[in-house]
Design brief:
Order of helices and strands: HHHEHEHEEHEHHHEE
CATH architecture: 3-Layer(aba) Sandwich
Number of strands: 7
Number of domains: 1
Distance between the termini: 45 Å
CATH superfamily: Vaccinia Virus protein VP39
Helix content: 40-55%
CATH class: Alpha Beta
Strand order of the largest sheet: 3-2-1-4-5-7-6
Structural class: alpha/beta
Shape: globular
Number of helices: 9
Length: 223
Amino acid sequence: MFDEVSIHYDRTNTILSVGNAALWRYATTRAVDPKPGERVLDVAAGTGTSSASLSRTGARVIAADFSAGMIEVGRQRQAGNPFIEFVQADATALPFGDAEFDAVTISFGLRNIVDPRAALAEFRRVTKPGGRLVICEFSRPPAAVVRTGYFAYLRYGMPVLVRLASSNPVAYEYLMDSIAEWPSQPVLSEWMRDAGFERVAYRNLTAGIVALHRGFVPLTKGE
């Protein structure tokens, strides 16, 4: 599915988010706070738009995605960026060693993984002690009026925009369902704690339509 939508994926996201995608990406980059020389794993990186933002400080970004089509488009678009390396990878069985990355991040991809809790365990495994995980994901607006309007948009408004913007409108039917069925902010926070992250917290963006979650890997004993 993602192979088929890869060419116009970024354009479609911009339209469907009503221009908010860039703001969410900026907030995520600030939350990750990549430092020069750090190694950052960007999971479900797609075409590398988020990876490019993370790499601007001089961090080395591994852009991982399950979709070969997304990886191919990303490599073409980021061909001139020496700080990004694209890797095709399964988030539930990452091809990296333990404690390799200073930070791991995933934006709007965790809900598309068959076993998100297994993916969280993998993120914990490949993150260095003291390192951080940042998740940007669609969520459940806490205000009832916002939640009602949002789900009405998912049901009635988004399909119209998808037909106008996407190269494969049928594929987005799944994406809309996955957003509607995704658990609330407190549930995802609990999943992160269960995976071994500490100091887990989240903050809502755009009235809770999107939430930023962050957690840290505990330092090893004696540090």
